Amino acid sequence: MAEEKVFFEDRGVKVTNSRFITYGKTHSLSGITAVSSQYISPSRKWPIILGVIGLALFAWKWFLALIVIALAVGWWMSQKTIYQVVLASSSGENDALSDKDQDFINKVVEALNDAIVFRG
Predict the structure, then answer these.
(1) Helical residues (DSSP H) of 14-86, grouped into ranges
(2) Same domain, yes or no, for 115 and 85?
(3) N or C: at which end does the chain have fewer Cβ atoms within 10 angstroms?
(4) Whole-prediction pTM
(5) Which of 81, 83, 85, 82 is nearest to 109 (CA)?
(6) Which domain holds residue 114?
(7) How many domains in the chain?
(8) For 5-33, how does the pLDDT look when each residue is reduced to its tens digit (9 = 90+)?
(9) Is 80 helix (H, G, I), strand (E, B) or coil?
(10) Helices 45-57 and 62-78, interaxial angle, to 10°?
(11) pLDDT at 2
């Protein structure tokens, strides 16, 4: 049997010409028909509501209003977009890997595409 060629290996994720291993889960590349990435934006509804409450508090207590607005801004900034690797096969789509690092996800998608092309 031929040795596996490794296309990517980082942070517990490994892509070879026959397997895609993610944090203890193994996906066979033979059944994968397409690979893509997608993102999930965080809901900003509650930080906005908290900010509006903070603005309303300026009429009553300006110091409390500043604290509430600072909390709203901190909450907003702490929310991060989640990026995903999506594998398509004959049985449908599967979200195989999620991370907040877009560059990492893009490298995994590129390695998976290279591995699929390598397989022929």
Answers:
(1) 45-57, 62-78
(2) yes
(3) N
(4) 0.80
(5) 85
(6) 6-41+81-119
(7) 2
(8) 999 999 999 999 999 999 888 988 888 88
(9) coil
(10) 170
(11) 66
